[in-house]
Amino acid sequence: MTDLHIRYGTEVTDALRDGHPVVALESTIVSHGLPRPDNLRVARQIEQAVREAGAVPATIGMVAGELVVGLDDPRLTRLATVDGVAKLSVRDLAVAAATGADGATTVAATSAVAAAAGIGVFATGGLGGVHREAAQSFDESADLVTLARTPITVVCAGVKSILDVGATLERLETLGVGVIGYRTRRFPGFYLTDGGFDLDWSVDSPEQVADVLAAREQHGVHHGGLIVANPLPADEQLDPELHDRTLADGLARLERDGVTGKAVTPYLLAHFHSATEGASLAVNVRIILRNAELAARIAVAAAARRA
Ligand code: PSU
Ligand code: MN
Description:
Structural class: alpha/beta
InterPro entries: Indigdn_synthA-like (IPR022830), PsuG (IPR007342)
Bound molecules: pseudouridine-5'-monophosphate, manganese (II) ion
Pfam family, one: Indigoidine_A
Oligomer: single chain
Family: Belongs to the pseudouridine-5'-phosphate glycosidase family.
Keywords: Glycosidase, Hydrolase, Lyase, Manganese, Metal-binding
Number of strands: 13
Distance between the termini: 20 Å
Cofactor: Mn(2+)
């Protein structure tokens, strides 16, 4: 892990050296996914949720061209509050480093850096995926193809309903990315408990995920990603009727405003947060905190097996 040009937080260095559980966290949800000023508070809460479940949080991002695994509070604050933080996918990392940029890492970039750093578990809100109209626009998140080649377990609440959920699941199958439901056989739709599609596999405990990870090693089938899909309980989801209305309106505005490319996801998330008057924000925060806790429990179970 040390030959990469990465700054590690001290706690992260110690935990990796000692084989203690570590959970990677992304910074794009902080800088681009959640509105200010809540984003910084939530970023700290996510780290706290990981700690309370017994693991060390490693929030990943880039500050002044330096790639950091385990952002300290001043750096986390900077990414959450300054203007002009770039959204960094894998392909952007080197350019951002060479030009001294501030940047937040997406699921794709966070996965790649975490795996290179020797971190096996990562918590986020929702994965990027295939956008609606992708047949014309070719807009498919680099999260998918990156997970095809990156050995990391990603705990998420499925993909946002703003995407083409069915097409995303098909692409994950083609790319060889494992998908397991956590106590469910339905793929979650982020704000919604049920994204409308069945899953082949489900597990009931963090220990069972650790069993899967151990079997991947034993069988030599550990080169790609594994998604643990953790749905919100039905009574905590966004009201489906409010959701459908907000989504239809958001998609219409997207077209009206001509928003494309990497701006699409932040635009739609911001629309949800304002149009639902904070209801989607509360749901979003719940999702991330639940995923952080589950990821930490998985990291703890996996570390116990290795010990
Ligand atoms: N899901 C969320 N909030 C987010 C994102 C996903 O609930 O902010 C971010 C993640 O960082 C993800 C990225 O990797 O959006 C996907 O962007 P794109 O569709 O441009 O690949
Ligand atoms: Mn895209």
